Structure formats: C-alpha cells, structure tokens
Amino acid sequence: MILKGLKERYGNITEEINERFKYEFNTIIEMGYTDYFLIVWDFIRFARENEIMVGPGRGSAAGSIVSYALGIIDIDPLEYGLIFERFLNPERISMPDIDIDFCYERREEVIEYVVQKYGEDRVAQIVTFGTMAARGAIRDVGRAINMSYGKVDFIAKQIPMAIGMTIEKALEINNTLKNSYDEDEEIKNLIDFALAVEGLPRHTSTHAAGVVISKDAVTDYVPLLRNGDAITTQFNMNELEELGLLKMDFLGLRTLTVIRDAVNLVKDNHGREIDFDQIDYEDPDVLAMFARAETLGIFQFESPGMRAFLKELKANVFENLIAANSLFRPGPMNQIPTFVACKHDPSQITYIHPSLENILDVTYGCIVYQEQVMQIVRDIGGYSMGRADLVRRAMSKKKMDIMEEERKNFIYGTSDENGEIEITGAIRNGVDEKSANKIYDLMIDFANYAFNKSHSAAYAVVAYRTAWLKHYYPVEYMAALISSVMGNTNQVSLYIQECKRLGIEILSPDVNKSYKKFTVKENKIRFGLSAVKNVGDNFIDAVVRARKDGEFKGFTDFVERIENVDSQAMNKRAVESLIKCGALDSLEVTRAQLMAVYEKVINEIHSDRKRNKEGQSSLFDNASKNQIKDNFPNLKEFPQNIMLTMEKEMLGIYVSGHPLEPHKEKVEKISTMNTIDILSSQDLEEGGLNKIRDGSKIKLASIVVDKKNKITKNNNMMAFLTVEDLVGSIECIVFPMTYERYSKYLDEDQIVVIDGKLSLSEVDEPKLIAEKISPLKEYNDDKLYLKISTQSEEDTFDRLKAILLKYKGNTPVYVYIEKDKSTVIADRSMWIDSNDQEAIKELTHFLGKECVKIR
C-alpha cells in the first residue's frame, strides 16, 4: 500500500526516496506503531471517500514520507527538508501524534465512523478540567460563604480582565482592591479563601478534538463519565498517554470548510473541478498578492501585524511563506528585521562557518526552524538524527547541565569503551573549535524560539490554497469565506468591505433568491439568510422548500406556502427581521406596509388553517382571507435613513445604500483623505507619493458604526470607535479629555467630522487619534475671502483685525491685497463665524459688498 502510494506521489522512485521509505518503515515496525498508522489511514480514507475535506497536514507528522504515501498528509517532506525524527524518534520512546484537520461542519461524521468501526465501548472522547480563575474563585467563594451579591460583585470586578491575571497580581496593581483587603475583615476572608482555591479544578468538559481508541473496552483501562451527551474518560490526555492508550486528535478547521464551499461554487459556476495537487505553488501572481499584503481572509496571514510583515518581506517563493508562518510568533519575531534585511540584500548574510550555508540558505542565514537545529547537530556535530532531536529538546527547555555536556560532545565527539567513535564531533568534521563554540551558542539562543517547520509548511499550504482561490476565483472564495463567519457581524462587515475593494457587488438578502449561505450569481454575491439576525435554520429550510414550486408572488402567498411546508417553522420575529433587512422587497410591498400588518396576516392565515383542520371554515372566512391578500394600508415607505438603520440592525452592515450617500459631496469636500488612502498608505513603495506619516493631521467625515467605552486606570472614560466613510472603515481612539468635550457626538449612527492625527506603526493597522469631533450637520467648511483695494489709510489692517476679533469662529479668513496682488490667510485667532450676519454686515460696510465673499 505504501509502495503504491509512493509510485502515485513521485512516479519515479529514486534511491533517496527508497532509502527514506525503508528507514521510516523499519522504524515504525520496530516501535510497534503499524496499527496506529493504519487506523489514521483508514479514517482519512473514509473522509475523502465521503467528500469530507481533510487538511494537508498538521504538526510534525508532515515530516514522514510514509504519511505522505498513505495520503495522511499532502506535503512532500523531501521537497521542503522535513525531518522524520521530529515526528517519531527511535531514540526517544514516545507515542506518535498525528493531529488531523477536518471540515468543521463534518468532523463529527468521522468520529462517528470510528465509533461504529471499533465499537462504542472502545472509543471515548477525552475529559478536560476547567479550573477556578481569579474572578470565578471570588464569586464561587462568595456564594459558598453567603456574602451579599453586591459586595462580591464589586470585589470580582476589581480584578482586571487580562490573560494570566491572578488574585495576587490584582492585589499588587489595584489599590482599591488592596485597600478593601486591608480594611475590611469580611473581604479579607473572601480573598484569602479564593486564593486557596484559585487554580483548582472546578468542572469537567469535553476536549475539543481528543478521542481515545482502545483494543478492549475503554473501561478495562480507565473510568468514564457522562459530559452532557458525550461519554468521556475521567483521565485527561496526558494521563492517557502515560498509560499507553492511543489518542487521536480530530480537529475541526473552519478554513477547510471555506475551501470546500469555494471549490463547490467554482464547480457550479465555472464547471471546473479544482485539484490542489495540480496547482503551481510558485505561481508569481499568487505570491505577488502576499507581497502586496492583500491577504484579508487568507488563513493565518490576515492579521494587521502579519500583513505589515508581508509588506516588508515581499515574498516571492513559497519557502518565504513557510518562514513567515514560523517567524510571526512571540520569540522568533525578533529575527524578522534580520531575516527581511538579508532577503533583500544577500550581501548581509554571514555564516559562522561555510558548513552552515547549505542548512541556513533557505532562511537567509537565520535559524528559524527546529529542524535546522537538528540538521546542524547532525551534519556538523556528527550526531544521529534521533539523538539530535534529544539535544534540540534539551536546548528548548534550557536544561543547562545537559546542554553543557552536549557542548563537549558536539565539539569534540565521543567514543565508546572500545575506542569506536559514537559521535564524530565538529572538529573531526572540519570545523575549528572557536567556530564550533559559536555555532553551539547560536543554537542555544534560537532553539527555544525556533518553530516546527513541518507544521509551518503544512499550514502554509492551506494558506496558499486560500490565496490561490481568492486570486483566481475571488467571488466564489469571498462568498464561501463570508458564509463561514455569518454569526460574527464584525467579520461579515470586514469581508464585505474587502469585496468592495475587489469590486464585487453584494446583493441584498431576498426570500426569492437567497439560500442559507452566501451564494454567487452572475459574478455577484447574494446575501445568505443565515446572516440575518433572528432567522434560524428551520425557518430558512422551510423558505427554500416552499419556493420550489416558483417564486413567492406576495406576502400572503409567502406565509401560506411556509405554513403548508412546515407550520412549526413560521416565526414572527424572523419575519420582522426579514422585512427590516429588505429580504421581502421583491414581493412588491413596502417595508412600512409590511411592518404595519405582518403579525395580523400571519395570525389570520394561522387561524384559517386551524379552522380548516377542524372543519369550521365558512364563506366569510374566505372573504376575510382575500381582503388580507389584496389590501395593505396606504403608507409611505420609511425614509432611506430609517431603512438603512434597520438593515444595519439586522445584518450588521448597510447593503442597499449608505447613510453618507446623501452627503457625498460635502463628505468628499471636507475630508482631507479617505480611509482607503489611510489604510493603503503603508503600501506605497519608497520614493512614491506617500505624504502620510505618523502624526499627520487629517480631517475625516464619517459615521460611527461601533463604540466601545473603556475606563482608564485613573477612572476616566475614553472610547474606541469604528468610523466608516464611503469607502472603508478605521479605528478611532478618543482619549479622556477629548471624550469629555465631545461624548454627545459619539453614539452609533452619528455622522461626524473628526479632526485628528494618524497613528501609524509597522505591526498594526493605522488608527485615528481624535482631537476634535463635530456633527456633520453643524460643520461649516466655508471660507471667507476679503479684498483690500487700497492701503491709503494706515489703520485699515488694524480696523479689520478689530472686527475679526469681535466675531470669533471656525471659518478661515483669506485676505487679498490688491496692491501687492498677494493672498494671505489670517491667523487662527482671527477666523470668524461665517453664519454670524452681524459680522458679515460690518465687514461689508467697512470693505464694500464686492470685497466680502463666502465660498
């Protein structure tokens, strides 16, 4: 089976391939893991045969050519220099660990297959233990000692919401909490008890991915418990591994579902079956998309920090993506400047010794991967690859005694009692002692941070596939991507903004056209009904089934046909949501009319059906029914701004228009730049026309679409806004002093003009720091032009200055001096309020009507 797989994968089996296969195969046999590989192969075979999307690999298993031949992974370990011993080390007896990613919607089917194949008594999911966190410990103890809820709640809220926060840390940083602890005996007892139980197991839950499979009944080895509907072990996965039980991880990966849906849409719309084994992973057009950082929606490459890194990196080969995935993590991130500099200027690459070049050349002289540490230890130190992995592990765990002992072995080598050389050593391999010490120090520095290349390579393949789809089939890919995040309106909004950037039109939801997910029609994306608030799957299924006989002709027809398909599915709240978001607009009834009568129509039809069932219908009932069909109240449609607000409420975004559209001319006139200008400011090449800098002053007319208040350490209120103009959105930070002055303008859906400065960084998206906020309707962007036709009177300027200072405002004043044919702008202190008629009247009287103009 493996040989057949090797033939399919490689065609011609070279000596290198055959040697690697024999070594891995013999190691697996000797370590007794053949059953393990066959079990994994079998459930992956089941998944593929049932069209359940399987990931190309995950973790160190991607370093095995046997896994590649069996179809367990889809990445060639030889092509990318992946090492088998990083996965299975014959010199370190431990269980292999093959984690598999599946389409997250169908993962349970694979687990169910395993249960059915090996028996319900031999398969169980794995328990995890939830522990008492800081706030939870306070609340639990408070309940146990019967302290008043208000007092407990106050103390719990004094503990900051931060990762890794403990009660002890909170006492150090929060003076209010510390004072309460010192001054109130009851609170002191509460906190002391909470400190004692903090971190202890509190409850059980089911591990998200772990499944244990045993040869005999699981109860022969470990006790079980019921967690809801799941049967789980009472031992956690580490304890199960120590017992020698077989643990598998069946992980659900959303991105695989996105790829599956996109591939299906491509097949439906273009008739093309996509085979990812046949695509070019060095496609310059796809790699250029990474280089431009156009990776919103691309697996593991869409965060602002990663996109900033990609702009610097300018990836041009697939190996760059593997490296980027490894480097953009705490620790290795320190290597990024060196890595980028050496990539763009190879003259900066230096090697302690020439023997390092063939190991570190793919990463421009930097140690990035754990596999590189192992290769250095093997090729320069003369270790076996298995022992090289043991040295790498010791380095990563900073075991100083082992590291110093291995330093001697690495440099000088070792011999057995008979004088036979066990480890060659760097000196015997032609590396001088000084260089060998430096190489060993370099490995110690980076072994703790170096990442597993096998995992990075496998996930870079997933990322590349998503990028390939986005480049060649953007409409299908974006539809699938948005469908995968329908429960998160912020993500939906973000990806729809990306669709706008790509020139993809988003069509409103429509009960006659939409399905559960986002779909593609004529190169446009139709909104999915699942993205509408309060609309559940049962209702959507009923809508789709009801329209199989043709489109709905009217609202009553819509209600009747759904009632006929599934009377239990009809839901007034769902109908209201569909009306508000415009999904019933195609029924040729206004939203205002429907909002006025939809409940009455549903009630009448429901009652009519009930009477028919009971045999109680009459001629008058039919007349009443026809009246409902034909007559809606004569109401004007809601104003556009109300309809847009309802759309935003139900969909999280504006679809049929934008609240700023009526003000488009004024918005474009006021704004010194738009959000696209700001967000793309980091994309311009050096020497381009980029005049945007950190701290640049700008003016932006926009609408507040999201607001999060925050209390500072000094108990002052500030806010984080998301503001949106006609082309995109940006985060705006309102610090306490600005918040205090302008808080009344910060509610959602307020249209405002923000004067502020830009905050630009290499690792984050641009932000706007607000300094002044004005409502658009009150904003005056006029300019006052004054002409001085004569300078005969020496006091002309003094008199003009006196008038201007009387009527202070925000309108800039430009003075044209006819004699000199020059124009000057008045000092900010002399700007006036152009709406003040008294000011204009006095200036006109002084200078003359033709010398005072507002534009």
Q: Which short descriptors sum up this protein?
A:
855 residues, alpha+beta, 5-stranded mixed barrel, 4-stranded mixed β-sheet, 21 strands
State the shape.
globular
Low-confidence stretches: 619-628, 682-690
Considering DSSP H and I runs of 4 or more, what fraction of the residues is helical?
40-55%
Separation, N- and C-terminal Cα atoms: 82 Å
Counting helices, strands and paired strands, the structural category is: alpha+beta
Radius of gyration in whole Å, from Cα?
A: 34 Å
Strand % is 5-15%
How many beta-strand elements?
A: 21
The mean pLDDT is 88
The main β sheet shows up as: 5 strands, mixed, barrel
If strands are numbered along the chain, what order do they take across the biggest sheet?
12-13-14-16-15
* Count of DSSP H/I helices: 35
Which oligomeric form is depicted? single chain
